Automatic annotation (TrEMBL):
Species classification: Eukaryota, Viridiplantae, Streptophyta, Embryophyta, Tracheophyta
Pfam families in the cross-refs: Lectin_legB, PK_Tyr_Ser-Thr
One GO cellular component term noted in the UniProt record for this chain: membrane
Keywords: ATP-binding, Glycoprotein, Kinase, Lectin, Membrane, Nucleotide-binding, Receptor, Serine/threonine-protein kinase, Signal, Transferase, Transmembrane, Transmembrane helix
Localization, UniProt: Membrane
Entry protein name: non-specific serine/threonine protein kinase
Enzyme class: transferase
PANTHER family hit by this protein: PTHR27007
Example GO molecular function: carbohydrate binding
Segments passing through the bilayer: 272-297
């Protein structure tokens, strides 16, 4: 039986030929019945969702505990190059069939710079991540993580499994090996525990899960949620495949029939042209050079920027992403000054000048109007007024704009007006009047005096 749907809360796909799924981005079902999420031709995010919502709480009782659920799926990740891969795959529970405002690349199509970590997301994801992102405190570039409303995993483990033999020691699995693997995700609503298990395809499910996390999802999931997969790719691109998938609420997911699953396409590895008579010393040199190329390529991808010809005129006002990354310690959470409607603001110290700055990360999903916007940013950088924060410049990446301001050591004005700490002094009316005059002076300068 290839496809069986007993109800919206119990379904199984032994291959996806003829499957009714909601597909977005580059997601597609191949003629062989593989669900291919991303490919090596386009840099973007992709989704594949079961078309109907699953019920994870009793009707009209949002405060009730979340139901138990279980899922198993077989996946494979085939990188375009052996030196690196695109980002990974995530099994997602979401309030909607797709996440239109989410970013690809390191955000896996789940969140963006503005809503990352926001409890109002109501998103749960099990990530199979193949890129290490320091800003999310990733442990390595080959791990499994539990993401609740943000990319900083609440629980994580290096990818692998614990076989049931006498030794039972941890065995590593390389997610980008191009080999099929099976994953099990099981949430026990009564015990409030989430287990994630991996194994090579064909091996029995290990009794010991790879990751077991005490977590209560009752405050995260809604009465009805959509379940599916999300993935993304960027500089180093990969093809992400799902071979089979089973899901069930309040029960054990039906086992997949591995004998009828479609096969992953064969990978074509490019041969390295080495002469037969190459000496051992030269071979070592080649290996060192290859490692150096991989390191440089990964580093360039990590600090990659988006630069178009028309931006060359704004050179003095453009910052290198590498400098801003180092200035904010990788946009570490401890450097976060606050968040607003368009993104988070981080404190930083520029590595060369040692000047303190505030860096705002703004997500954008289109290039339309970007040239005009950057021109306005640079124009505002020439504004000089004692009541206006000086805009120093900008940086652009795919899907992201970074604005650099002077750092205000005394914090935001609203803290002095509204967020009074114990023992602090309330601003008197004369001081408040001075604040109002300063704001008015700055507005007058912008609208009538500055050219």
């Amino acid at each position: 039986l290839t496809i069986a749907v007993a109800g919206d809360d119990d379904f199984i796909y032994n291959g996806f030929r003829g499957a009714n799924l909601r597909l977005d981005g580059t997601a597609a079902v191949t003629p062989e019945g593989l669900l291919r999420l991303t490919n090596t031709t386009t840099v973007r995010k992709s989704y594949a969702f079961f078309p109907n919502p699953v019920r994870l709480k009793p009707a009209n009782d949002g405060s009730a505990p979340a139901f138990s659920f279980a899922s198993t799926f077989v996946f494979g990740i085939i990188p375009e190059f052996s030196l690196g891969s695109g980002h990974g795959i995530a099994l997602v529970l979401s309030p909607s069939k797709g996440l239109p405002f989410a970013l690809g690349s390191q955000y896996l199509g789940l969140f963006n710079t503005t809503n990352n970590g926001n409890p109002s997301n109501h998103v749960v994801a099990i990530e199979l991540d193949t890129v290490q992102n320091p800003e999310f405190s990733d442990i390595n570039n080959n791990h499994v993580g539990v993401d609740v409303d943000g990319m900083n995993s609440t629980a994580y483990h290096a990818a692998g499994y614990y076989p049931d033999d006498a030794d039972g020691g941890f065995q590593n699995l390389t997610l980008i090996s191009g080999e099929p693997m099976q994953a099990w995700v099981e949430y026990d609503g009564r015990d409030e525990r989430l287990n994630v298990t991996l194994s090579p395809l064909g091996a029995a499910k290990p009794r010991r899960p790879l990751l077991s996390s005490a977590i209560n999802l009752s405050g995260v999931v809604l009465e009805q949620m959509y379940v599916g997969f999300s993935s993304s790719s960027e500089t180093f691109q990969s093809s992400h495949y799902i071979l089979g998938w089973s899901f069930k609420v309040n029960g054990i997911a039906r086992p997949l029939d591995l004998s009828i699953l479609p096969r992953l396409p064969r990978t074509k590895k490019k041969p390295i042209p080495l002469a037969i008579c190459l000496g051992s010393a030269a071979a070592v040199s080649v290996l060192v050079a290859a490692a150096g190329v991989a390191f440089v390529a990964r580093r360039r991808a990590k600090f990659s920027e988006l630069l178009e010809d028309w931006e060359l005129a704004y050179g003095p006002h453009r910052f290198a992403y590498k400098d801003l990354f180092e200035a904010t310690h990788g946009f570490r959470e401890t450097e976060l000054l606050g968040t607003g409607g368009f993104g988070g603001v981080y404190r930083g110290v520029l590595p060369c000048s040692k000047a303190e700055v505030a860096v705002k990360r703004v997500s954008h999903g289109t290039r339309q109007g970007m040239r005009e916007f950057v021109a306005e940013v640079v124009s505002l950088g020439r504004v000089q007024h004692r009541n206006l924060v000086r805009l120093l410049g900008y940086c652009r990446r795919v899907g992201e704009l970074l604005l650099v301001y002077d750092f205000m050591p005394h914090g935001s004005l609203d803290r002095l007006l509204f967020d009074l700490q114990p023992g602090s002094t309330t601003l008197g009316w004369s001081r408040r009047l001075g604040v109002i005059r300063g704001v008015a002076s700055g507005l007058l300068y912008l609208h009538e005096e500055w050219e």
